[in-house]
Amino acid sequence: MRRRAVTAMTILLALLPVLALASGGGEAAHPWRDIIFKFINLSVLLGIFYYALRKVVPQALMDRKEGVAKELCEAKKAKEDAEARLAEYKQKVANLQSEIAALRADFKAEGELQKKRILEQAQKSVEAISKNAATVGEREAKMAIDSIREEAVKQALALAGEILAKAYGAEDQKRAIEKTIDKIEGLH
After folding, report:
1. Rounded-to-integer distance, Cα 25 and Cα 109, Å
2. CB 8 within 8 A of CB 48
3. Range scoring the smallest mean pLDDT among 94-98, 114-118, 141-145
4. Is the distance from CB of 65 to CB of 22 less than 8 angstroms?
């Protein structure tokens, strides 16, 4: 690249006198000579541009062409991806109503199962509570009956003690003691 720039500058410096001559105020008798010098000047300038840019411009255009082709390819791929996603979303939206209906049916069925389980559990709890209440009631009744019996026995003993105390005198006690002693002696 640097070599080309040096070559282009050398050619420009060599043609500088031609440019000066072409732009100089020569004689008016030769109007064709001015036109020829201007044509040569333009040709040299175009030649220099061609020589300096003959590899750069095609390469730049080729790079630009490849870049545009690559961008087109990427855009095409992006478009295809977007269309695929759009089709997928359309499919999901189309299936959305059926999915909602299926979810509702599932929730309703699950709710019915939960309701049934809760009712069964409540029934079992009622039965267990009733059974426990009956057992507790029987136990309480038995305890009440036992308590009443104890009280009756206490009162009967107290009453018997009073009756015996009134009817049982000192002589009766003496006789009972002697009788008991005789029985004990008879055992031996």
Report:
1. 107
2. yes
3. 94-98
4. no
Using one digit for the tens of pLDDT, what is the confidence trace for 51-65? 888 888 888 889 999
Place of tokens 């010098």: 37
Per the rule left: phi > 0, alpha: psi between -120 and 50, beta: everything else, 48 is alpha
Whole-number average pLDDT of the chain: 82
Residue 15: name the closest of 5, 4, 7, 26 by CA. Answer: 7
Instruction: Please report where in the chains the tokens 């040096």 appear, as a residue.
Output: 6
In the chain, which residue ranges form alpha helices assigned H by DSSP?
2-23, 31-53, 56-167, 170-187
Question: Quick check: 5 pLDDT over 80?
Answer: no
Higher pLDDT, 166 or 17: 166
Integer Cα distance of 177 and 168 in angstroms: 13
Instruction: Name the pTM for this structure.
Output: 0.33
- Residues near 4 by beta carbon (within 8 Å), at least 6 away in sequence: 51, 52
DSSP state, residue 54: T
- 38 and 22 Cβ atoms separated by less than 8 Å: yes
Sign of CA dihedral 171, 177, 180, 184: negative
